[in-house]
């Protein structure tokens, strides 16, 4: 059974009361540890957050944000995710935590895979996996996202108009 914790109206996925390799920084809560790399992205479907993922091989920390169900500000740029999914239930994806990690670079993933004997998983970038989750798990937050994208777009249109005016001058 997975431990859960409430964050406002949201039930956090993979909550751990002990420090792990995977830490989320929640705006109204502070630091929360989760059990595996995919848990960060799964929680990111429901709320914006900051994240730190420590590579299980070299211990280097990958940092990023999830804003409106998108991965942003990745540092370093190309971390890799290895994820073993256990299938989907209604509205959720199950993952096998021991086999699901975020690696700061491909070399570390390759090294880790060379001794890995578990179930074969998917290897992909964080934005790719986030995109895949977005497609499979639409939520109410998604509707809000559309709403704010519209707002942002009209905002940037104003900026472009201004720029156009400027160019004419
Ligand atoms: Zn590493």
Summarize the biggest pleated sheet: 6 strands, antiparallel
Uncertain runs: 141-163
Structural class: alpha+beta
Strand arrangement, major sheet: 3-5-4-6-7-8
Spell the H/E element sequence: EEEEEHEEEEEEEHEHH
The total of helices stands at: 4
Radius of gyration: 18 Å
Count of extended strands: 13
Bound molecules: zinc ion
- Helicity, in percent? 25-40%
Instruction: Kindly report how far apart the N and C termini lie.
Output: 65 Å
- Here the CATH topology equals Beta-Lactamase
Outline of the structure:
This protein is of the alpha+beta class.
Describe this structure as you would to a colleague.
This protein has helices at 37-44, 106-113, 126-136, 140-168; strands spanning 5-7, 10-12, 15-16, 22-26, 30-34, 49-54, 61-67, 70-75, 80-83, 85-89, 92-95, 101-103, 122-125. The longest helix has 29 residues, at 140-168. It has a 6-stranded antiparallel sheet, covered by helices on one side. It has a 3-stranded antiparallel sheet with strand order 12-9-13. Strands 1-2 form a two-stranded antiparallel sheet. It has a single domain (5-138), classed as Beta-Lactamase, CATH 3.30.450. By secondary structure, the protein is an alpha+beta fold. Zinc ion (ZN) is lined by residues 55, 57-58, 60, 103-105, 108.
